[in-house]
Specification:
13 helices, seven-stranded mixed β-sheet
């Protein structure tokens, strides 16, 4: 049974560090790598195995010695298989059981498989084992230019990190779920952290003994240890705890105060918090791990000023979804999208930016997911690249948003609470999600999950023939909505917003649509001035390019790319530009061509194009494409809005759309500092939503970033000259932070 370590912060946080901490002020999206296996956990048919662990750590020798008294549930077969880290040499030290080694594998971590045979009526067995576990922290490359440091487990002078990936506790194939009580002996001055509750701490001559326990079903046992300074704040929901490697009372107080507020918000929204505490733990290398009842963050990540208000609540919420209700990965991972919706999206929504967050999620889908890349949500296991992020996170959060729009606020909250109450500490699939919401939504959700969860793709909408005529005391608005995607039509409730004469805010009417074409016939009390289809991005759909700003993600997400080098640049600069272009291809099946500008008569319009260099002879095409924006260029500087970037000081990145084909991106990267290019190669993928960037120095450090405003959407029609802009009424968030 593979482990399911929740590391949903990891990709975001490692991205921020790769991009340079000082460069990031925008809030990260829900981020993460999920190491849960595709097989998924088995359904729970019996009580978990009970482990009583006695652990002795020898930090200098990088070893541990464990005595594990294991109590097996009634009905357990007499012959069981378990896996354990290689070289730990387990022995049975109780009566009524025989142990035999079956095989060994080494896929990064040496793992041995053992068979345990029990005599009749024997349900308890004690194993003793010990040895070295030390897998040094190593860089792991990842798709779309992200990399981070990992270790499956180690005992080291800097600290201890042991979990399911370490295979330090026997994992039984017949019953993968467990509960535990663990006593651990530590060096003087050290503290341990595990999931659940600390029952006791004794300080003795030259050592410390702590006891941790968790009685609810778990997938693995964590043991984190280091010379921590502990800060604790008792709470009405659960205790908030902070473990820091370097004392910092102000930092701890900030996290303690916010932890209590987030726990209270989510308990009111979903149900009882399932653990005795939530702890923030400082790791000794850069991580963004989320475990049951605690999160393990790196020393730089933990001090990023926005993390307590962005990614941190995401990890707290995972104790309801993922570590409170387990995911049946074989049928699709619903947890990451739901957590993103109720954490990242909700925090934006509380600041009146929910529509912006949804637009960015749809933009990632438009930029990275082509028809041949798309897949159904039942196939999503975890995030591996930009495509799986856009579908598995972005589409899933939009599915839950559409459920909320369909059911209404109260019914949506009721469904969340019922789903949690029914499946707490049990495995849940998309079918279980559907059954819960359909029980509350009834006929309103007929076919909903089939088309959004089981089917790949997204609808694409077109608005045409909009007109308005006086009709009695009011007006009649007529238009036609079309679905233009390939494949069958979706069943949709399409929001149509209308600005009416004499009113300050738009009114919204829902138009039911279950075919390729739908006539829109609306009776209105006043003259309609402007009509817009889904202006708040409430539907999961294919966006028009005019609805979203030109962005780096559009160029980096393209399947076919032409990179144009400046022939007039020194050879050394051309070489590092070439390396920059090749770095964008890493980890993706991109058709990449690299040419000098003197080898081309014109630029193609059937692929994304990157122009490199201040003196690239095709740069005027970029200026033409940006004619409608606050952009002007001279030979040695550019002006973007009120900011000026100079060739002598800055590296510049600017995105536009090909004037001949808006579906293709036209990008420009320019620097005269070869030392800055490796940093640009590493950082640009982490600024995907931006239209322009400015950097300074060798690092390089970000000094400017922003988005061009979207152009007029084809789904918005002005019915009267000089009509005021669309003004949507504000919406109340799903939950408020206490």
């Amino acid at each position: 049974m593979p482990t399911a370590l929740r590391v949903s912060l990891l990709w975001v946080l490692m991205s921020l560090l790769a991009a340079g901490v000082e460069a990031v002020t925008a809030e990260p999206s829900a981020a993460g790598v999920d190491s849960a296996a595709a097989d998924g956990p088995e359904p729970i048919h019996q009580e978990p195995i009970q482990h009583r662990l006695s652990v002795q750590l020898d930090i200098d020798a990088r070893r541990l010695v464990v005595e594990d008294r294991i109590r097996l549930p009634a009905g357990t077969p007499r012959s069981l298989r378990f896996q354990l880290h290689g070289g730990l040499d387990p022995r049975v030290v109780s009566d009524g059981a025989i142990l035999k080694r079956l095989d060994a594998t080494r896929r990064g971590v040496p793992v041995e498989t053992w068979r345990l045979r029990l005599e009749p009526d024997v349900r308890e067995v004690t194993l003793r084992y010990g040895g070295e576990i030390h897998h040094p922290v190593a860089e792991l490359g990842a798709a779309y230019s992200r990399s981070f440091s990992v270790s499956p487990g180690l005992i080291d002078a800097d600290g201890v990190f042991l979990g399911g990936s370490s295979h330090w506790v026997p994992v039984f194939a017949e019953q993968p779920y467990l509960a535990f009580r663990m006593t651990v002996d530590l060096p003087a001055g050290w503290r341990a952290v595990s999931q659940g509750e600390r029952e006791g701490r004794q300080v003795m001559d030259g050592m410390v003994r702590e006891t941790w326990s968790e009685g609810h079903r778990q997938e693995e046992v964590y043991l984190i240890a280091a010379p921590f300074t502990e800060y604790r704040q008792p709470g009405t929901v659960a205790d908030a705890v902070v473990f820091l490697r370097k004392p910092d009372e102000a930092l701890a107080d900030r996290y303690l105060e916010l932890t209590g507020r987030y726990l209270a918000m989510y308990e009111a929204l979903i149900g009882d918090y399932p653990y005795a505490k939530f702890a923030l733990v400082e790791n000794f290398w850069e991580t963004g791990y989320g475990m049951p009842s605690f999160t393990l963050l790196g020393p730089r990540v933990i001090r990023l000023p926005f993390i307590p208000y962005t990614s941190y609540p995401h990890e707290i919420l995972h104790n309801w979804w993922g570590n409170g209700v387990y995911v049946d990965f074989a049928s699709g991972n619903w947890s990451e999208g739901l957590t993103s919706y109720l954490a990242d999206h909700l925090l934006k929504e509380q600041r009146g930016k929910g529509a912006d967050y949804r637009r960015e999620a749809l933009q990632k889908y438009a930029d990275y997911v082509g028809d041949h890349d798309d897949f159904a949500l039942t196939e999503f296991r975890g995030r591996h690249n930009a495509v799986t992020e856009a579908v598995g996170y972005g589409k899933t959060l939009m599915v839950f948003h559409m459920l909320r729009q369909t059911l209404g606020e109260d019914e949506f909250r009721a469904a969340l609470r019922r789903f949690y109450e029914t499946h707490r500490f049990r495995v849940a699939s998309w079918s279980d999600v559907a059954a819960t919401f359909e029980a509350i939504g009834g006929d309103a959700l007929d076919g909903f999950f089939d088309q959004w969860v089981n089917r790949a793709g997204a609808p694409a909408l077109r608005l045409r023939d909009a007109s308005a005529e006086p009709d009695g005391a009011g007006y009649a608005l007529n238009a036609v909505l079309e679905q233009t995607q390939d494949g069958p039509a979706y069943r949709l409730e399409v929001p149509v917003a209308i600005m009416l004469e004499g009113q300050d805010e738009a009114v919204t009417r829902m138009v039911a649509m279950d075919g390729r074409e739908q006539a829109v016939e609306l009776d209105l009390p006043a003259r309609p001035l402007r009509i817009a289809v889904d202006p708040a991005f409430d539907l999961f759909r294919r966006l028009y390019r005019e609805e979203i700003p030109p962005a780096i993600s559009q160029a980096l997400g393209a399947d076919r790319v032409l990179v144009v080098l400046p022939a007039s640049a020194p050879k050394s600069l051309q070489n590092v530009y070439r390396q920059l272009a090749q770095s964008w291809q890493r980890g993706r099946s991109v058709q990449l061509a690299i040419r000098r500008d003197d080898e081309l008569d014109a630029l193609p319009d059937d692929r994304a194009v990157w122009l490199l260099g201040w003196r690239n002879r095709f740069r005027p095409m970029l200026e033409q494409a940006l004619g409608g924006y606050a952009f002007s260029a001279e030979a040695d500087q550019v002006r973007i809005g009120e900011s000026t970037l100079n060739r002598s000081d800055n590296s510049v990145v600017v995105l536009a759309r090909d004037p001949a084909n808006p579906e293709q991106a036209l990008g420009w990267v320019a620097t005269d500092n070869p030392a800055a290019i490796p940093g640009l190669a590493r950082k640009l993928p982490h600024y995907g939503k931006y239209s322009y960037l400015g950097f300074r120095g060798d690092a390089p450090d970000n000094v400017l970033k922003g988005q061009w405003p979207p152009q007029a959407s084809p789904l918005s029609v002005t019915l009267v000259a000089d009509a005021p802009p669309l003004n949507l009424p504000s919406r109340a968030p799903l939950a408020e932070l206490p």
